[in-house]
Amino acid sequence: MIRVLLVDDQPLIRSGFRALLDLEDDIEVVAEAADGKEGLALAKEHLPDIALIDIQMPVMDGIEATRLIAADPAVARVHVVILTNYGLDEYVFNALRSGAAGFLVKDIVPEDFLHAVRVAARGDALLAPSITRKLINRYVTQPLHTGADALSKELTNREREAVALVAHGLSNDEIADRMVISPMTAKTHINRAMTKLQAHDRAQLVVFAYEAGLVAPRNR
After folding, report:
1. Which of 79, 93, 95, 177 has its CB 3.0 to 4.6 Å from that of 101, i.e. a possible disulfide?
2. pTM listed for this prediction
3. Pairing label, strands 27-33, 79-84
């Protein structure tokens, strides 16, 4: 059973998502909150698998709630998925850096929404190819992050190659095919890279890859 926490200050949005989730046999909504502070408290109380968190809320916004969840060992295993009306903007980028596993735009179709919840529950990042392209554009004019560049030197060549392929949006099976290795070996390279870089998930690996220059931004 996938246990979900809904955090959004709009009751209509929460009720709509809950109505979809309650129809699924393998998903349970364990709690709802109207702001980030309440959401953080409920995350600690219920320890859900997924926390669907809006960005702009009163009392505490979604980015701060995400940062506090990711930083707290008691709830760090909760996968935060950001809800937004705006696609990939500066708010969402900051949320990814704060520890979010990914994000969903609120006009997502129901089938994709349910699929995304299950993907996040497995620990995979929610970064569709269109979103990855926008993330790439974020780095077109940005200088390299020197701290990330230094950390990249701790990776082996194969780990750097795997991280770069993650940044291109490839799955483990696709990475294995590209690197001519088994899917299990590909997963091992990625997990070791995440451990060395202290990345919570693949979304943070994507951010790291561009900050460290492992992947060169293309044209906008």
Report:
1. 79
2. 0.66
3. unpaired
CB 49 within 8 A of CB 79: yes
Among 25, 40, 203, 20, which Cα is nearest to 5's?
Answer: 40
Query: What does DSSP say about strands 27-33 and 50-54: parallel, antiparallel, or unpaired?
Result: unpaired
Question: What does R_g of the chain's alpha carbons equal in angstroms?
Answer: 17
Q: Would you state the pLDDT for residue 11?
A: 93
Number of residues that make up the chain? 220
Q: Is 10 left (phi over 0), alpha (psi -120 to 50) or beta?
A: beta
Phi/psi of residue 7, each to 5°? -130, 105
Top-confidence range, 21-35, 59-73, 77-91, 202-216: 21-35
Q: How remote is the C-alpha of 203 from its chain's centroid?
A: 5
Distance CA 86, CA 82 (A): 11
Whether the CB-CB separation of 124 and 173 falls below 8 Å is answered with: no
